[in-house]
Each structure stands twice: as structure tokens, then as C-alpha cells.
Amino acid sequence: MRVVPNAKAFRIEQSEAGWKAYVKEKAEDNKANLALLKGLKKLLKREVRLVSGAKARNKVLEIDGTEEEVLGALRKEGTGKGTQ
């Protein structure tokens, strides 16, 4: 998932390149990573862990549930509209 910090609101979008998450926090002191994990956990109602990419815009995440369940939930919520 690609993360874009300093957004107006938390939201996720799906594009041809993959998933993109927009977070309000700046990319300093791990704030954007924490906002990403918190926002996805709230949105998907599942545990979310950062596997790699702590200092990069592209992240690898581990989300509880089957691939079908997680992708279904992401697609349902990934409208591009703000969620917070």
C-alpha cells in the first residue's frame, strides 16, 4: 500500500497501481505509519500490522482475515471519500 501523508482526511483508494492510503499526519516520528494502522483497523475492523516499509511510502501490511475477506472490505471502503 502506498501512503500519502498530509492529506485533508484519512481515505483509501484503489488504482491500477494498487492501493493508496491518505493520512492526515506528517511523515515524521512514525506518525503517518501509526495513523495508517489506526485508520485501517477502524475502517476494516481487523488487526493490521506493518511488515515492512516503515521509512518508505510503499508499505507491506499484514491484515487479519482471508485474502478474499480483506480485499472485499478494502473494495467496499475504498471509494476515495474521506472516512474520518
Explain what the structure shows.
The structure is a single chain. This protein has 84 residues and is of the alpha+beta class. The chain has a single domain (2-66), classed as YggU-like (Conserved Hypothetical Protein Mth637, Chain: A), CATH 3.30.1200.10. The protein has two helices and five strands. It has helices at 31-44, 67-77, and strands spanning 2-4, 11-15, 18-22, 48-52, 60-63. It has a three-stranded mixed β-sheet, with helices on one face. Strands 4-5 form a two-stranded antiparallel ribbon. Strand 4 and strand 5 form a beta hairpin. Mean pLDDT is 90; it is low at 80-84.
Number of E strands: 5
CATH fold-level assignment:
Conserved Hypothetical Protein Mth637, Chain: A
Tally of distinct domains: 1
The residue ranges in which pLDDT falls below 50 over 5 or more consecutive positions are: 80-84
- Oligomer designation: single chain
Q: What's a quick, concise take on this entry?
A:
By secondary structure, the chain is an alpha+beta fold. Helix content is 30%, strand content 26%.
Descriptive key words:
single chain; 84 residues; alpha+beta; Conserved Hypothetical Protein Mth637, Chain: A; 3-stranded mixed β-sheet; two-stranded antiparallel sheet; 30% helix; disordered C terminus
